[in-house]
Amino acid sequence: MTSWIWSHFKTIMEDSRKAECQICHNIISRGKDASRLTLSSLRRHSNNVHSIKNPKEAEEGSSSKCASDSRQPTIVETLAKKQKLDLASPRAIKITRCISEMIAADFMPYSTVENRGFRRILDLLEPRYNIPSRAYISQVGIPKLYEDTKAYIYKLSSNAIGGICSTTDIWSSRECDSFMSVTANFFAYNKHGEIKRYTPVLSCKEMTRSHNSENILLQMTQLEKDWAVKFDAVLSDNGANVVKALADGQYLNIRCMAHTINLCVTHSLACQDTVKDVITATRSIVGHYHRSYRDARLLSECQRRMEFPEHKLIQDVCTRWNSTYYMLERFLEQREVINDMSYRGISNTLTSSQWRLAACVVKVLKIFVTATNELSCDSATASLILPTIMNLINRVDEFTVDPEITHLEELLEDLKSQLQRRFVRPVKGVRQNRDAYFKNRKTWEYCAVSSALDPRIKHYWCSKSESSEVEELCLSYVTSNINVSGAESSESNGESSSTSKTEDSVAFPRDHGRQREDRRQKDRLSVVVSTLRQYLAEKPISKKRCPAKFWEDRCSKDCPHLVKLALKFLSCPATSVESERLFSSAGNIVSPLRNRLTPKNVEVLTFLHVNLHKLDFLN
Question: Burial of 18 by CB count in 10 Å (0-12 exposed, 13-18 middle, 19+ buried)?
């Protein structure tokens, strides 16, 4: 192989023992014996005179230099890399916290830390970490995470904008332990300085006493003291004990809108015999396929053969909202398959008139399912209650003249009657029905003002007379809110007229400061009122836009009092779904693998599971 040196030298033809440098043209001897010539002198000349080295040797030299420059670790440092982490070290604390979060957020039992597969993964990722026992996780890790989460929510709620509303419900676990849940709903600034709606769980405490109104009220008042909050409104179902407790405590109680709609639909479905017969026959056929494995398998084969969606039939549950609608809808989807199975003698089917009636029932019930879904979403507020009532009544009226909806006169008549009776507007001096949604005028006014302050709705849902009344209601709420705020600010500034007993002055009267504050308050009130009137005169914004973002962009600088008032009414939800979902999570926590959890542990794990997901693991 030709040496790299010959790229810088060439042999002299007259004397092969010598070579000429192509850079400086010097003649370098390669030795005296022509049979034993070397390249040492040529390399020496290139290195010493021109600083040119063999490229391979240069690379090896640099790598060896780096290796020689790197300091050899000491024995103490070498042993430290193999030494187990102390549980109090920052890295160990972070890993332990992540394990606690995983157990709480993913419905995992405490014994997860003792599972062989879990320990193998941690040994691979961090061999120095000393995996704690299940006792340490349950007695130290989870309680520490609970206290940190509670402190975070306490700080959020103390900085709430406008006010705080809540939802509450009572639930019993499979171990027959009763729990009462309370969730909060409010707006606050997030870490990016933006207004965001928060719905954390405040409590899921065990109820060891009787579920009477006195004990429920005692638990609500104690919770307000523990969290240093005062609820502007409380959402609940129609349970008599909860309703009485909130009435005795003088809480503004708003019923769960979705629950009331479901009561209307359930009552109306039972008032027409032909509809009852269709539902009973459908329920019987669906139940047959749920009980018979052989026929269910034949149904799946028939679906594949006829190229129908391979969907299972849905059985309705009396306690589950809209389950009758979903049962009939799926049954109509599989109509040809059901008829084919009946033709083969496997099961029964409906008559042609019953099929037509089922299709009409599904079309009517669909608007109630849509309303329930809209009211139950995370962004739904009490501002949707009154517009939903009006739209449902109007849609039922449209169905009565719809030529495609036939033989449902009794059902439609009862639906309209139920909606009008349950959601009747309170009249002063007239006692409301026992099952009325609005128990007093204050509840109706709260929902009306909430709708007016929602820029997606305003007062376009009501008549002209009601529109002017709602506008006056908004102005009265604004006026009272500004007056209260002005009084609080003057007291905080030490300008109360009753606290000063100094002598009168000609240049500076005794009530000079009070007069100045009154003028400022009047100016502030006039600005807010004019802004509110201008807002109500404008058209509603798109339903896809965020109401809180609208108020933040429009009035956060000019009319902060109006923003607080709007967010106070927009923080109230339309349903108690938050508490219902909470108990769904609690049902998953009390599983066969965790059937020995104490009620206190159920409370802590439910609190953490819901709040960690809602608060993005506390950011």
Answer: middle
User: What are φ and ψ of residue 285, in 5° steps?
Assistant: -65, -45
Judge contact between 315 and 286, C-beta under 8 A. Answer: yes
Q: What is the pLDDT of residue 593?
A: 64
pLDDT under 50 in the chain at which residues? 1, 68, 487-502
Beta-strand runs (E) in 434-557: none
Question: What distance in Å separates the CA atoms of residue 542 and residue 208, rounded to the nearest whole number?
Answer: 48
Q: Which amino acid is at 50?
A: H
How far apart CA 505 and CA 507 sit, in angstroms, is 6
Count of other CB atoms within 10 angstroms of residue 277 = 14
- For 336, the token pair is 């040809």
Helix (H), strand (E), coil (C) string for 344-400:
CCCCCCCCHHHHHHHHHHHHHHHHHHHHHHHHHCCCCCHHHHHHHHHHHHHHHHHHH
Number of Cβ within a 10 Å radius of residue 581:
17
Tokens for 251, please give them: 């809480």
| Count of residues in the chain | 619
Give residue-wise pLDDT tens across range 490-544.
Answer: 444 444 444 444 455 555 555 555 666 667 767 777 888 888 888 888 899 998 8
Instruction: Report residue 486 CA to chain centroid gap.
Output: 36
Q: What is the H or E stretch that residue 18 is in?
A: strand 18-21
Spell out the domain ranges in the chain.
4-69, 82-256+602-619, 260-423, 455-488+523-572
DSSP assignment of 404-416: TS-S-HHHHHHHH
